[in-house]
Amino acid sequence: MQFLIFLHQHPFVYYLLAVFTGLAVGSFLNVVILRLPRMMERGWRKECRLLLEIGEEPEDKQKFNLNTPPSHCPVCGHSITVLENIPVLSYLFLGGKCSSCGTHISLRYPVVETFSAIVTLLVAMHFGITLQALLAALLSWSLIALAGIDLDHQLLPDSITLPFLWLGILANMSGLFTDINSSLFGVMAGYLSLWTVYMIFKLLTGKEGMGYGDFKLLAMLGGWMGWQMLPLIIILSSAVGAVVGTGLIIFKNHGRSQPIPFGPYLAAAGWLALLYGPAIMHIYFRWAMT
């Protein structure tokens, strides 16, 4: 309690703590984005081998999760030390290269860490020293992980979306972000709205326009913010997705038939709605009535 009083009296310390926390979590999110899809693929292969009675492969006996094996260079196998794993600073100090073999380290690592820190700071500034800030930060981190995984693998893991869907409903049982009825209707409307679009598109074209993970992600966002925010989330994500998709086709020779992950746009729109949704809607209605 005294620590909370201290933070109220010294908000700069609170914001600094948010930045450091965001950097540390961002480092962990890099691990999640890299390893969780591999864990899922290994699990699928193992289940297929069991179903087909093929027998175990050597990799089935090797432990692989978010903690094991320890972080290492994929080229030379050099284990990453504590000093080499300081968010952003280690990347700058090492010049973006492995200290053992000099292999280039992806710029994604410091970018994700920095982005996580910025997002966490904005959440802290918006919600203040409240339980809402903690929960909003958790949601923000989950959205960063989902966006990164979807960009790489076009997957939105249930192991992230479903727990956070229930966490959103639980938070709104106390009305932290919206009332519980809006939360429950948000889950149903979020899933069914994209599922309906998916089915209509499939009936008309015979193709699948999006994945079931997108339905679950929008349902998750509806559970946090209520059904009232769903139109804004859909409009924002669709608009940005259309612009980026058109740009990829024109400037990057992206094939028209090549799928573009929709999850990152839903995640970004959901985060904007979480912090600035009411303000955006107020500006829009004021503009529409003039």
Largest sheet: none
User: Alpha-carbon distance between the termini?
Assistant: 48 Å
**Portion in helices:** over 70%
**Total DSSP helices:** 11
Overall pLDDT: 88
- Mind telling me the C-alpha Rg? 21 Å
Uncertain residue segments: none
Structural class: mainly alpha
Measured by DSSP, the beta-strand proportion falls in under 5%
Number of strands: 0
Q: Describe the global form.
A: globular
Salient structural properties:
single chain; mainly alpha
Commentary on this structure:
With 290 residues, the chain is mainly α. Helices cover 71% and strands 0% of the residues. It is built from eleven helices and no strands. The chain has helices at 2-9, 11-52, 58-61, 89-93, 108-127, 131-153, 158-172, 180-205, 212-225, 230-251, 263-288. Helix 7 (158-172) runs parallel beside helix 9. It is globular and about 65 Å long. The model has no long low-confidence stretch (mean pLDDT 88).
Q: Could you give a short description of this structure?
A:
The protein is mostly helical. The protein has helices spanning 2-9, 11-52, 58-61, 89-93, 108-127, 131-153, 158-172, 180-205, 212-225, 230-251, 263-288.
Write the layout of secondary structure elements.
Layout: H1 2-9, H2 11-52, H3 58-61, H4 89-93, H5 108-127, H6 131-153, H7 158-172, H8 180-205, H9 212-225, H10 230-251, H11 263-288
Helix pairs in contact: 1-2, 2-5, 2-6, 5-6, 6-7, 6-11, 7-8, 7-9, 8-9, 9-11, 10-11
